[in-house]
Amino acid sequence: MQRKYENEDFRGFLERLRAEKELTDIRQPVDIRHIATLVDQSDTALYFHDVIGYGMPVVSGIIRSSRRASLSLGCERFSEIEYKLQQGIDHPIPPKYVETAPSKEVIEVDGAVDLFRLPIPMSSIYDGGPMITAGVVIARDPEHGINSGMYRFMVKEKNLTGIDIVTPNNMRLFARRAYEAGRACPISISIGTHPFEIMGSGFRAPLGVDEMGIAGGIRGAAVRLTQCETIDMPCLADAEIVLEAEILPTGWTHPEGRFGEFTRLMGGLHWNPLVKVKAVTRRKDAIYYALHMPWENTWLAAPTRYTSLRQALKSAGIQVKDINVTLGGCGFWHAIVSITKQAGEGKNALLAALTAQDIKHVVVVDDDIDVHNAMDVEWAIATRVQGDKDVIVIPGARAKPLDPSLAVTPPGVVPTGAKVGIDATIGEGIPRERFERIAYAYADRAKIADYAGGKADPVPPHPAANEQTVATLAAEIYKTIEQEPQYYSAIAEKFAGHQFQAVARALGRLHSDEKLWQDPRGRLCVRGSPHAAKPPAQGS
Prior knowledge:
The chain is α+β, with helices and mostly antiparallel strands and 540 residues long. The protein folds into 3 domains: 2-295, Pnp Oxidase, Chain A, CATH 2.30.110; 316-433, UbiD C-terminal domain-like (3-Layer(aba) Sandwich); 456-526, Winged helix-like DNA-binding domain superfamily/Winged helix DNA-binding domain (Arc Repressor Mutant, subunit A). Helices cover 28% and strands 23% of the residues. The strands form 6 sheets. It has a 6-stranded antiparallel beta barrel. The longest helix has 21 residues, at 295-315. The N and C termini lie far apart (65 Å).
């Protein structure tokens, strides 16, 4: 399937969404102030062809569901995205440079730059201003090389924005190093790129690893880059719009925000550097892409957590069955991990998982628990956890500044907080039979729909219970349990040729004859046999 989309650009993806009925065209005039709320209400992505006051259409919501996120990367199911990302990490394809590019059909520099001509929507009620949300940013550091990422830019003037880099990451490091050296940090901002490049740039790769190589590995073909016109930086050749810019050496001194975050909450006022835009290049008929918060961010961010978790758990030697990075945890902070456990590995798995990116809370469960079923997970916590032994709190860990539960920290100070792990696996030394779930007999064949439709069970062929029948049946049952203990339901099934009352009476007769007992698992056995359970000492 990957080969099918290796040459697909942003527009090709939009056409595919349209063919899948996942994109709705809005052709009548629409006020730009209404776009964000319309996208929030829509079950599909929206393409606004006529935005009042602007000569450029707007598309938004293209990865705002699990299905559209899956489609964006050529996957049948959302769970496959994690493996597509891992493929890109394991088998990166370096980008290739091209001389001519669709993103350079129109070139505006210096005084011709006017960001207010771009149809950048407002989003939330408390926004500080229009925000560029879908820019793939490429930066270079003299020592650490190329970095790509997704960052937000609040438009302040026709050629001036901020850049939101309060969270510790490689882009913040590059900007900090440039600031300390008293120089600007050149960056390209490519808007309207394929989700392949969005996914690659959204992965937090180690310093020195080119995220566009990872994007190429996800795509299955090299990402096409071209050289910028006014700065010594590459940009995405097939983007709809490119901003050539510099992070000015102002430091983290200018207010920016507020803005709705991945937390589904309004972020606070941030202090950030300024960005001067030196050129805007674009296609002649460019489409502006407004990434809609929070879900367009969440659906492609969550798989990067899956990948980091698997890497951490693999390094710890943990056999993982399944992982769920939950939407309740905003796709960033909560992970449920099921493992095939050896002694002590519940705690080891917790410690490993809590090192993955910004994961804040982890629950580790046994492999009989469905990590995607919240009731199943809560049941494991309720029945398998002792708080004094199974809850781990790690204070003073690096935290994400957008966590609203953190104490207020001064600008520029990286906050720290607590990480919490819950080991909801069955503890060592506890009998497994304590955790045998209720399973109703004959559930595989007795279906209510059949009986509601008139099904009748046949009457067993043996005669109804009488003294002779019961005596004969009791002898047969005795021979069965003499060989091996049996659950009551297994005996009822084995002797299903008799009416159940006869089976119950036969067992009652064995009990009155002091021949019937139970083993430690509750199975019926012969009294006095090696299988028979021993009563506890009196007073214990």
